[in-house]
């Protein structure tokens, strides 16, 4: 769930609402995920998002990880089942997903405090660090305009100059 959430720049609620039937395997091995109807998609205009295979390092490939997970749980899933759930096949809610994110980060470093939106924030920040063009980031995050990215850009600019004491400090990036 975390890898897919990071790759989709997903909000916790978007991950919670994903259904089994929203995943389509493409002939080239990539997948499409339908996120239409998310928080800012009032008119259901969003197109499905394609996730490409990560050929250089299959151990972190979101497509491989998702298919491995799906193969493990397919025996109790139907098209309208939640994509991510426990064996009870009940949808997580937004708070459940947020707590999963927080617990995962706590297990890595108990000193780090994160929010439920940390996957989205992290993916956006990572894109800015890598120099991905702003329009490409906006397309990925589904933000409506460039002003939405300005807080991330300001934080990264401060961190690059060692002017931040937050998680974004360049001293914490390995």
Describe this structure in words.
With 174 residues, the chain is mainly α. It has a domain of 60 residues. The chain contains seven helices and three strands. Strands 1-2-3 form a three-stranded antiparallel beta sheet, with no helix packed on it. Helix 1 crosses helix 5. The C terminus is likely disordered.
Key features of this structure:
single chain; 174 residues; mainly alpha; three-stranded antiparallel sheet; 7 helices; 3 strands; globular; Integrase-like_cat_sf; DNA recombination; DNA binding
Q: What is the average per-residue confidence, as pLDDT, rounded to a whole number?
A: 77
Label the structural class.
mainly alpha
Give me the side-by-side strand order of the main sheet.
1-2-3
Hey, roughly how much beta strand do the residues contain? Answer: 5-15%
Helicity, as a percent range: 40-55%
Question: Outline, from the CA principal axes?
Answer: globular
- Using the CA coordinates, give the radius of gyration: 17 Å
Low-confidence stretches: 163-174
Q: Main beta sheet, described?
A: 3 strands, antiparallel
What is the count of helical runs? 7
Q: What is the first-to-last residue Cα distance? A: 23 Å
Helices and strands, in N-to-C order?
HHEEEHHHHH
Number of strands: 3
